[in-house]
Specification:
The protein has one domain: HAD superfamily/HAD-like (Rossmann fold, 3-Layer(aba) Sandwich), CATH 3.40.50. Helices cover 43% and strands 14% of the residues. The radius of gyration is 14 Å and the shape is globular.
C-alpha cells in the first residue's frame, strides 16, 4: 500500500480536537483502503472517514453545514481549496499550497496540525 506519511503530531492533533469535544473527520482523495488505514492510525472511525474526489470534500462540508453543524476544515492542497473556502473556518497548513493558503481564513504557519487545536482554543471561549 502506498500512502502519504502522517504529519508529525497528527495523532496528537486528533486527540486534542476530541478533548475540545469536537468530532474530527477525515475527508481525503485517497482510495477507500488507504483512507481507512490512515483513519485507523488517527483513531477516526468510519463513517467519519470519507474518501473521494475533491468535490466530495465540498459536498461533505455543505451537508454538515445544512445540518446546522459548524465546520472547521484543515487542509494543505489545491484539492482542499474549495472546502477551505466553504467551511465556517478554513485552516491551511502553512507548508501547503498557495491555493490552500489563499482560500483559508487562517494559516497555521508552523505546519503542525496540532496547532489547529491551539488556534481554536485561542479564538473561542472555553468549551462546554
Amino acid at each position: 500500500m502506498v500512502a502519504d506519511q502522517l504529519k508529525p503530531h497528527a495523532v496528537e492533533a486528533v486527540a486534542r480536537l476530541r478533548a475540545l469535544r469536537l468530532r474530527p473527520m477525515l475527508l481525503t482523495g485517497d482510495n477507500s483502503r488507504t483512507a481507512l488505514a490512515v483513519a485507523a492510525q488517527l483513531g477516526i472511525p468510519p463513517p467519519t472517514c470519507s474518501p473521494g474526489p475533491p468535490a466530495s470534500k465540498v459536498e461533505a462540508v455543505a451537508r454538515l453545514k445544512a445540518d446546522g453543524i459548524g465546520v472547521c476544515f484543515v487542509g494543505d492542497g489545491v484539492n482542499d481549496a474549495a472546502a477551505l473556502a466553504q467551511a465556517d473556518l478554513g485552516m491551511a497548513i502553512g507548508a501547503g499550497t498557495d491555493a490552500a493558503i489563499g482560500a483559508a481564513d487562517l494559516t497555521l504557519v508552523a505546519g503542525d496540525p496540532a496547532s489547529a487545536a491551539d488556534a481554536i482554543q485561542l479564538a473561542a471561549p472555553p468549551w462546554p
